[in-house]
Amino acid sequence: RLKVGVLISGRGSNLQALLDAASDSAFPAEIVLVLSNVPGAAGLERAENAGVPTATINHRDFQGRQSFDRAVTSALEAAGVEFVCLAGFMRLVTQEFVEHWHNRMINIHPALLPLFPGLDTHQRALDEGCKLHGCTVHFVRHEMDSGPIVGQAAVPVLPGDTESSLAQRVLLAEHRLYPECLRLIASGEASIKGDVFTLPATPPETLLIS
Ligand code: GAR
Q1: For residues 9 and 76, what is the distance between their CA atoms, to the nearest angstrom?
Q2: pLDDT tens-digit series, residues 174-204
Q3: 100 catalytic per annotation
Q4: Choosing from 59, 100, 109, 142, which is the catalytic residue?
């Protein structure tokens, strides 16, 4: 099974979805380390409950992004990590880090990229009057929230939606999408060469509209 490290900063509900998927021995990836940059992040307890090793590397203990990122890579590699999933990891990473994990690192973003990179995605989708919104799993490139798209799940924006009701609907889609995308990659059904990501001829439905 592909050895995966998950980077988090907070709640860890996407981490939970990955842990749940990987608890099935037939899933082609196993989570060997959960690393948080925030001490006491709720997601760390989720990992502990699943019997997965955790680490905390507080970015505030470092002078700059480069030394922090190098410490993260060292911890991941010491744990045997081959592939990285960012799951609510709220730090910008350095070019060096992105290059080190080139095509070996994916992220989940709560919008249908390339719409709404950055923060406040749900409010921005509401403000624009979007009728569809959703989430994206993508390989990480240096430019924030960019990179080859692995999968997307779309949800409707309903009349009367608030930021939190929309966020909740998207989050449920995230929890379906992220494990499925990791499964596709780890199983070898999908592959990336350079910037070209290739899905199986008949992609699973979770990659389209939920
Ligand atoms: C998720 O909605 C994820 O898509 C988003 O943060 C949330 C983390 O929730 N990520 C980003 O905004 C990345 N820029 P979680 O900790 O419960 O998985």
Answers
A1: 16
A2: 999 999 999 999 999 999 999 999 988 877 6
A3: no
A4: 109
